[in-house]
């Protein structure tokens, strides 16, 4: 088994749709971003790629590449799962903390868990999403944006760890 951690932050921007964990949250303005700005998806992508030492979201889906303009971040997350599987790993479980003063996450958590569970191919039971405020402190407290922390546990498919015994030079990732 291996573990990865991811973080992302985005600024709120008028006129954008708020998408978090693949779920549209209509009661609040959206987030800036080259893609749809789904910071939950982006933090999870970094956690998955980090778990197998495969770089980060920017190395696969750079903002300089117009293919990813307004991209559906659930599609990017699905691609990250494919990268994971191409390295012989699958997701065990993920845990996500979303930090913002508003909107309230609770009414959307179950929909996010189901959507993420589908894309990660684990089911909602292996996906945790938690909302917190920043107690009014700093840029999050002023409602300027959102921050997301994610952790992902992955396991070798079929119990075979492709990295076992590999040297730094020969890491087959
Ligand atoms: Mg991002």
Characterise the protein shown here.
- With 173 residues, this protein is of the alpha+beta class.
- It has a single domain (2-159), classed as 2-C-methyl-D-erythritol 2,4-cyclodiphosphate synthase (60s Ribosomal Protein L30, Chain: A), CATH 3.30.1330.
- The protein contains five helices and five strands, in the order E-E-H-H-H-E-H-E-H-E.
- The chain has helices at 39-51, 57-60, 73-86, 109-120, 138-141, and strands at residues 2-20, 23-31, 89-99, 127-132, 145-156.
- It has a five-stranded mixed sheet.
- Strand 3, helix 4 and strand 4 (127-132) form a beta-alpha-beta unit.
- Helix 1 runs parallel beside helix 3 (73-86).
- The two termini are 14 Å apart.
- The model has no long low-confidence stretch (mean pLDDT 92).
- Residues 8, 10, 33, 39, 42 line the site of magnesium ion.
Provide key terms for this protein.
173 residues, alpha+beta, 60s Ribosomal Protein L30, Chain: A, 5-stranded mixed sheet, 5 helices, 5 strands, globular, binds magnesium ion
Mind sketching the topology for me?
Elements: E1 2-20, E2 23-31, H1 39-51, H2 57-60, H3 73-86, E3 89-99, H4 109-120, E4 127-132, H5 138-141, E5 145-156
Parallel strand pairs: 3-4
Antiparallel strand pairs: 1-2, 1-5, 3-5
Helix pairs in contact: 1-3
This protein binds magnesium ion.
């Amino acid at each position: 088994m291996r573990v990865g951690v991811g973080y992302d932050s985005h600024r709120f921007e008028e006129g954008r749709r708020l998408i978090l964990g693949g779920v549209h949250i209509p009661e609040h303005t959206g987030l800036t971003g080259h893609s749809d700005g789904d910071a939950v998806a982006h933090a999870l992508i970094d956690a998955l790629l980090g778990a197998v030492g495969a770089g980060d979201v920017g190395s696969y889906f750079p903002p300089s590449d117009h293919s990813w303009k307004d991209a559906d971040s659930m599609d990017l997350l699905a691609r990250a799962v494919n990268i994971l599987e191409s390295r012989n790993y699958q997701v065990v479980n993920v845990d996500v903390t979303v930090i913002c003063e508003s909107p309230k996450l609770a009414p959307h958590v179950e929909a996010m868990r189901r959507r993420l569970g589908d894309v990660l191919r684990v089911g909602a039971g292996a996906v945790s999403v938690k909302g917190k405020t920043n107690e009014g402190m700093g840029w999050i407290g002023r409602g300027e944006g959102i921050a997301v922390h994610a952790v992902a546990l992955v396991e070798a498919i079929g119990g075979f760890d492709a990295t076992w015994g590999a040297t730094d030079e020969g890491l087959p990732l």
